[in-house]
Amino acid sequence: MSKKAIKVIADTSSYENLSSFDCIEDLNKTVRKYRDLIKASVKRSDLKGRLIILLELLKRHSCKQIGVSYMCKNTIANIMELSYKTVQRLMKKLEELGIIRQIAMKRKKSMLQTSNAIIIQPIQEEVSNKDTVEKGDKCPTLFKTKTTTLKQKINRLRTYETVIQHNDKNSFNDLPVEFCSDRIPKEFVKLMSYYFNKAFQIDEFYKCYMLVCDKYNQQESYCINIALDSFRQLIRKMKRSTINNPFGFYTRILQKKMKGIYIRSQLLNN
């Protein structure tokens, strides 16, 4: 059986036309609902945690064309410290749950296959409120730009202007510690601000903490001391040797500590 020809060219217009969200807030709301879906439908705790981490990773890398990521699986495997085959299986599981879909892309110059476009799907009830494109054999990227596409671009620009209030640099990553999210405990921010002076860095550490809490069914407010102790352990390690991925190393420390608590609680309950 011959392979199906790849018709979609990897360029900015193609990725923008594949986007199904009007703004980043809609994307965030959808991802939160999908996290609840994963928690409810996936029984294995390790698989559940990996799927949530993968979904969050795809979300963070799909803000330029909202909801569309074009990270290659090798890059994802390196970030998550998993094998390529494992990432493939996780992607397939997200597709089975209706959370994402993948579209094969080819380079404009060489016409050879490149990384798939990974599209986070909107919730079905949200799709019904949008102007839908007529279904056909052609990919939506081949249709001409319509009014709905122009509205999406305008909404994105408005979102970026309200979210990113800049003085010298037009980047969210340049915001100082004072712009950390209100949901992050003050003691967490205070300790980490001694070593990391950007708000997005502290946000990332707290996201790692929340994911590990979800994996082992622990309440975030009860385990904040474990999060602080794990960070101190990370700093001690960084003082002794080079850590290329402090977020990944911090997550591994947390997982080791949380796993011990989880096992002890299970033994006590039994």
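The record above closes out task 2.4. Task 2.5 opens with a second protein, given below.
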Amino acid sequence: MTNIIILDDHPLVRQGIRTIVSSSPLIHVLGEAASTREALLLLEQFTPDIILVDLNLGSDNGLDAIQAVRRAGHTCKFMILTSSITRSELQLAQSQQIEGICLKEAFPEDLLYAIEVVSRGRKYYDPDLMSSLLEDTSADQENILSELTPKELEVLLALGKGYSNKEIATALFITEFTVKKHVSQVLAKLDLSDRTQAALYALSKGLVQFELQR
């Protein structure tokens, strides 16, 4: 069972989100909050697994709210729900290790899937946001994939599918040590900071067909 709190300043939106997530027998809504202050008060009573956070909380900002919750010592996961987000906000969310970002325009089943992914300890960034997050900054980057060896490209595709090093090693018939070397080379050549960025890159470039795994 995944216990969640909904943090959104619009009552109708909160009700809509509650209706969607309550349709899953694996999700339980502990409570709702309209502001950072209300969320902190709820956290004095409950210990959620995930907090669904609106990016724009009236006079508050969702990213600031998340930082406030963390400073208070709470260790739950966070998923941002938003209708729009800037490139800088996306990058800031990633730098703060936010576990999930989902568009409010997503289908109900997409939101449920996103919560499932985050609850399992993985990150979920809405695929429709990938291209914005990883938009090329120069024409030279269009051909950057040509710098990867065939094996490094295979590793990049596997990262895009969310495979662990062990799973990549099994799929490509190589050792985990070799996988780590390939991952390091991929990150260096594509100027990416971690494997999450590599996965987002693969998705944004259409290298991996995004499929819901149930």
